[in-house]
């Protein structure tokens, strides 16, 4: 599994780093956590570094363009594999990759997105475009903070307007508006939210907005995962996993040191009935056959 806790600064970097997954031939997953704040942070670092080292303007601009491409990749509502292929000048064959969040249906539109956007933008207008994301979220969420009361913002018509939304969800929606260019965030150490022409179009009802959220339902298996589970007796697989845990506990080692899940799936698929038959299963050598081959066969035969 390869996890990006924040946005990489180019698609090339992302492709290289995610390429480390699955090198052992086993199913792997790549996870990218994204926020518009990542892009803003990278831009600020680039500009600060360029100013300190007298970097040529064209080099800075090139870095920003690469960052914009990876931002677009993270926010585009389409197959991620198709998006990567398009970036590298190739055409992805197939309507669905069956492996990314979009193709697996793990994201969905937020109900009443345009109305939610109008409420957020209206709050930015009510606080006179003088405050950042945290304060706008405080007002919309109905926070009873000293700062909100000192400024008299608990008296605004937008105060508590979205108090039923979790704070993290509300913050994410604000950043989605920034990402979509429907709201601007000024640079610097104390950024504030500003409205633009698109903001006013949304508030006047002349532009529809689509906001996204992760589905709460359990994710589907990817196409690769489905293939790896083909003809696998899942009840037997669970019995073998239990036995693996027992053996691992006896030896005080992690379970994967005993056998990988891929090997357990193969055992639960071919269902060998003798220790000799285990020799033909991937992942078995003489030592494993001697150490716990008989216990595995006993487990398989008991299951049948």
Mean pLDDT: 88
Count of DSSP H/I helices: 15
At the first level of CATH, the class of the largest domain is Mainly Alpha
Gyration radius (Cα, Å) is 26 Å
Q: Describe the sheet with the most strands.
A: 2 strands, parallel
How would you explain this protein's 3D organization?
The chain is mainly alpha-helical and 304 residues long. The chain has 3 domains: 2-75, Rossmann fold (3-Layer(aba) Sandwich), CATH 3.40.50; 113-210, Orthogonal Bundle (Arc Repressor Mutant, subunit A), CATH 1.10.10; 229-303, DNA polymerase, domain 1. The protein has 15 helices and 6 strands. It has helices at 11-18, 36-53, 57-75, 80-87, 113-126, 133-141, 146-151, 167-179, 197-203, 223-228, 234-251, 255-258, 261-270, 275-278, 286-303; strands at 2-4, 30-32, 107-109, 184-185, 193-194, 212-214. A hairpin with a 7-residue loop joins strand 4 (184-185) and strand 5 (193-194). Helix 6 packs across helix 8.
Write the layout of secondary structure elements.
Blueprint: E1 2-4, H1 11-18, E2 30-32, H2 36-53, H3 57-75, H4 80-87, E3 107-109, H5 113-126, H6 133-141, H7 146-151, H8 167-179, E4 184-185, E5 193-194, H9 197-203, E6 212-214, H10 223-228, H11 234-251, H12 255-258, H13 261-270, H14 275-278, H15 286-303
Parallel strand pairs: 1-2
Antiparallel strand pairs: 3-6, 4-5
Helix pairs in contact: 2-3, 5-6, 5-9, 6-8, 11-13, 11-15
């Amino acid at each position: 599994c390869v996890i990006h806790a924040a946005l990489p600064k180019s698609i090339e970097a992302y492709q290289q780093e995610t390429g480390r997954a699955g090198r052992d031939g086993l199913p792997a997953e790549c996870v990218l956590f994204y926020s518009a704040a990542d892009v803003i942070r990278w831009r600020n670092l680039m500009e600060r570094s360029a100013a300190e080292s007298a970097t040529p303007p064209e080099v800075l601009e090139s870095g920003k363009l690469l960052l914009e491409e990876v931002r677009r990749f993270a926010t585009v509502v389409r197959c991620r594999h198709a998006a990567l292929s398009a970036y590298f000048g190739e055409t992805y064959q197939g309507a669905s990759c069956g492996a990314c969040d979009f193709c697996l249906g793990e994201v969905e539109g937020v109900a009443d997105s345009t109305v939610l956007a109008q409420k957020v933008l209206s709050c930015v207008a009510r606080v006179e475009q003088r405050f950042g994301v945290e304060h706008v979220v405080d007002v919309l969420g109905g926070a009873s903070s000293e700062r909100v009361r000192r400024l008299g913002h608990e008296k605004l018509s937008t105060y508590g307007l979205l108090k039923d939304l979790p704070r993290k969800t509300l913050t994410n929606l604000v950043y989605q508006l920034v990402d979509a260019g429907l709201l601007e965030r000024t640079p610097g150490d104390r950024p504030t939210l500003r409205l633009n022409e698109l903001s006013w179009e949304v508030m006047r009802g002349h532009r529809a907005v689509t906001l996204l959220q992760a589905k709460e339902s359990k994710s589907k298996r990817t196409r690769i995962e489905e293939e790896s589970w083909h003809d696998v007796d899942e009840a037997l697989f669970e019995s073998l996993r239990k036995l693996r845990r027992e053996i691992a506990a006896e030896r005080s080692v992690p379970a994967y040191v005993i056998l990988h899940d891929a090997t357990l799936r193969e055992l639960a698929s071919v269902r060998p009935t003798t220790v000799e038959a285990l020799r033909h299963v991937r992942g078995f050598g003489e030592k494993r056959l001697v150490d716990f081959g008989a216990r595995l066969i006993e487990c398989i035969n008991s299951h049948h």
